[in-house]
Amino acid sequence: MSSADADADWSIQEIARLSGATSRTLRHYDDIGLLPPSRIGGNGYRYYDEHALARLQRILLLRELGLGLPAIAEVLEGQTSNTDALTTHLHWLRQEQQRLDRQIGAIETTIRKLRGGEQLMAEEMLDGFDHTQYKQEVEERWGKDAYAKSDAWWRGMSADEKESWRARAERLGSDWIAAVASGIAPDSDDAQALARRHVEWLASIPGTPGAHRDYVIGLGEMYVADERFGANYGGTEGATFVRDALRVYAEANL
Amino acid sequence: MSSADADADWSIQEIARLSGATSRTLRHYDDIGLLPPSRIGGNGYRYYDEHALARLQRILLLRELGLGLPAIAEVLEGQTSNTDALTTHLHWLRQEQQRLDRQIGAIETTIRKLRGGEQLMAEEMLDGFDHTQYKQEVEERWGKDAYAKSDAWWRGMSADEKESWRARAERLGSDWIAAVASGIAPDSDDAQALARRHVEWLASIPGTPGAHRDYVIGLGEMYVADERFGANYGGTEGATFVRDALRVYAEANL
DNA sequence: CTAAACGTTGACGCTGCGTCAATGTCAAGC
DNA sequence: GCTTGACATTGACGCAGCGTCAACGTTTAG
Question: Per the structure, how many domains does chain B have?
């Protein structure tokens, strides 16, 4: 009979799995009165029916939108309408976003200042390279004019082009940092995909050897050796990861 | 002698005022070992010298950029370089921003769905107006074709124009909500400036009476009476504030 | 009958202080 | 020498939303 289904209720773990919330969360919602169980067994166990499940779904939906539990409670009590609550919350989110915008701008400015100048990216890159132990090797292999060529390329760009290039470099750095944070290995598929992107990015800089095996490997070493470069990849730890990933990639594909 | 100045140190309240932090914050920084006082009196009082003050300034600077106290400690200990810490933090801020972006998008979508359709803004505005107690008065004064005209105006806009108009309306709503939250009075200068903006915005909609005294006042009443409009201003409370501000403005200027 | 799985009620932890509370100290004026 | 007010101290709770033990009953499958 279907009445058996209609009267059914579930244990705390069962709705936890049905809804995606944890049992701890459900007990918390009970504690603060947001979602009391529909029934409590003689053993103290909490049981929930489909009514409670529906209420839970609404709670989780609003929570995903970022509303606080008290605000959610007001909506469910009918004291506040959905649109009212969401509009208010939307406003607060916009404030937060502006705050982040300002912080990001301030940090970018600070980082650039710490580097000692805005347009030194390219100079630093090759200048830094020269500072490494690989200087001789590089000059022998790719010529002493590599620096000059790249410098001319950089100076030839418009401000917008420079900004776009910088943004691209930052996105790459951001992804490297995320990769490190996620705990994957340098030889994993994801890391190797990043390495490929990195090499393609390098190849887009004229005057450099580009996708050349020893150049890529040497560059990786430099990221670790020179803090100014490592900073783009989340510091020494990140730079080490990038170096290892690049080496694996270069030895396998270049 | 200048040596008297060089050896000076300050009480906790004094550096609090010098730095802008509160004394509670300073005691907290002492508790967690982030900024110990340079000297502790026999009475247990904390005293700070110019060295400690400089350290405090660095702390506050990094804190403004959003870094956590443990991260700041690492930087000051020299375990992490400035650029490393800032780059890592920058990455985390970007993640947060994307999260907010997604939430904002989801909420806007939800609100529009709740309203029952995207492009009903203008229709709702005048339709809702008609539903109020002011319908007769409005029709008598401004003619029955006001709705039709405005409807035609809205439908004549391109998608981009509509979006831009919607964004403008949302910014206005956002500012109203901020005004209410800040606790100012409806007849304050700031609120009246908003009212002016609001009226100018109204006047930009063809087919409406625009900056007409009774129209503006009646519209304000409608915001309170009809929840669909009040939602744009943070709910009933916000709508009431807008109504009062508009009335004051209209009676004084129109 | 037993072990595994699941249930319960506490209670601490995290971020960065704001905010009392209870109490001691110091400088200035009478 | 005493009072007063400003300033100092060390706790300790509170906030948002659960995660994470801990210590201990209950149900269920084998």
Answer: 3
B87: nearest Cα among A26, A162, A35, A173:
A173
Which chain B residues contact residue A63 at CB under 8 A?
none
Let me know whether B133 and B220 are in one domain: yes
Would strands B39-40 and A10-11 be described as parallel, antiparallel, or unpaired?
Answer: unpaired
Q: Are B125 and B180 in contact (CB under 8 A)?
A: no
Inter-axis angle of helices B159-182 and B121-131, nearest 10 = 60
State the residue for tokens 């450099």.
Answer: A208
| A105 interfacial to chain B (CB closer than 8 Å) | no
Same domain, B58 and B175: no
Q: What is the DSSP string of A118-169?
A: GGGHHHHHHHHHHHSTTHHHHHHHH-TTHHHHHHHHHHTS-HHHHHHHHHHH
Strand D-proximal residues of A, range 19-38, CB below 7 A, are 22, 24-25, 28
Q: Are residues B112 and B129 in the same domain?
A: no
Q: What whole-number distance in Å separates Cα of residue B89 and Cα of residue A103? A: 10
- The domain of A170 spans 117-253
> What are residue A39's DSSP bridge partners?
A47
- Residue A235 to residue B111, Cβ atoms within 8 A: no
b or e along A132-164 (b: 16 or more beta carbons within 10 Å of the residue's beta carbon)? bebeeebeeebeeebbebbbeebeeeeeeebee
Fill in the DSSP letter of residue A41: -
Q: Are residues B111 and B176 in the same domain?
A: no
Instruction: Please indicate, yes or no, whether residues A141 and A235 belong to a single structural domain of this protein.
Output: yes
Residues B84, A235: C-beta atoms closer than 8 Å: yes
Report the protein residue whose CA lies nearest the C1' of nucleotide D6: B13
Contacts of A150 (CB under 8 A, 6+ apart): A122, A125, A126, A205, A206, A207, A208
The Cα B243–Cα B223 span in angstroms is 7
- The one-digit pLDDT tens for each residue of chain A (254 residues) are 444 455 678 999 999 998 989 999 999 999 999 999 999 999 999 999 999 999 999 999 999 999 999 999 999 998 888 888 888 899 899 989 989 999 999 888 888 777 654 444 444 444 434 333 444 444 555 555 555 555 566 656 655 565 666 667 777 888 888 888 777 889 988 889 889 988 888 777 666 667 788 888 888 888 888 776 777 787 788 899 999 999 999 999 88
Please tell me the distance from the alpha carbon of residue B94 to that of residue B91, in angstroms, as a whole number. 5
Q: How many CB atoms lie within 10 A of CB A2?
A: 6
Interface test with A, best of B82, B90, B93, B232 (most A CBs within 10 A): B90
Q: Which nucleotides of C are covered by protein (CB under 7 A)?
A: 6-9, 15-19, 25-26
Among B120, B119, B117, CA closest to B128: B120
Residues forming beta bridges with residue A10, ordered by sequence position: A48
Query: Do B60 and B171 share a structural domain?
Result: no
